[in-house]
Amino acid sequence: MRRIIAIAITAAASVLGIQSTARTATAPASAQEGTVEVVRVLDGDTVVVAGWKERVRLANIDAPEKSHGYGKPGQPFSVQASRWLERELQGKPGVTIRCVDSDRYGRKVCNFYRAGQHVNKEIVRSGLAWANTSNRRYLRDRSVLDAQREAEAARRGLWADNKPVEPWNWRHECWERRVCAAH
User: Fold this and answer.
1) Would you list the DSSP string of 15-83?
2) What is this structure's pTM?
3) pLDDT greater than 60 at residue 73
4) What letters, b where the CB count within 10 A reaches 16 and e where it falls short, cover 106-125?
5) What is the pLDDT of residues 158-180, one digit of tens each?
6) What whole-number distance in Å separates Cα of residue 13 and Cα of residue 78?
7) Alpha-helical regions (H) of 90-166
8) How is the chain split into domains, by residue range?
């Protein structure tokens, strides 16, 4: 019932040309901002939000790839990235979200915040994800690069590896060309 009311308010506000401030904990997938419940972490940069049909990608970042079955092995630090994100978001109260885009698969691309922290930036600062520089469109918040430089300088997480491979290169080299970096 609350969802129907929230949708009706949003629709009425749209017709009147005003923005609605009504938000629910399980906002419809069309919402761009609000409080959400992360019910599952799929990997270091993708989550499931209660009440949303599509998976949600974290904006500005790309985390090490988890295994996708035979012929698609996982990257070093993929499990650590997923666990870090679980500790920060899964089932935690007070998670807010600001969506900035949708990806080619129809998933919302969003920034997550909790306890005064920009979670997307913090996973990069911890050394468990990259600032997504694979395409200019994917990095909207350039401060994520500062977090990455900080992690790299401190040799945190994946930066302890002498030659960490960016996920976009891992997918191409390892999964498509079948030339996986030895670690």
Assistant:
1) HHT-------TT--TT--EEEE-EEEEEETTEEEETT-SS-EEETTEEPPPPP-STT-PPPTTHHHHHH
2) 0.79
3) yes
4) ebbbbbbbbeeebbbbbbbb
5) 999 988 989 888 778 776 767 77
6) 42
7) 119-125, 143-154
8) 1-25, 32-176
Q: What angle do CA 178, 181, 183 make, to 5 degrees?
A: 140
Which contacts of 67-76 are long-range, i.e. CB under 8 A and separated by 24 or more positions? 68/175, 71/175, 71/178, 72/174, 72/175, 73/174, 73/180, 75/165, 75/167, 75/170, 75/174, 76/158, 76/161, 76/164, 76/183
Contact 151, 126 (CB under 8 A): yes
pLDDT, mean of residues 49-59: 95
Using CA atoms, how far apart are residues 180 and 94, in angstroms rounded to an integer? 39
Average pLDDT, the chain: 82
- The correct answer on CATH 2.40.50.90 for the domain covering 32-176 is yes
Catalytic residues: 57, 65, 107
Give the residue among 141, 136, 100 at the shortest CA–CA distance from 122.
141
3-state secondary structure of 122: helix
Give every CB contact of residue 167 below 8 A, 6+ residues apart in sequence. Answer: 62, 63, 64, 65, 75, 130
> How far is 158 from 74, CA to CA, in rounded Å?
13
**Cα 77 → chain centroid:** 16
Greatest alpha-carbon pair distance for the chain in Å reads 59
Residue type, 130: W
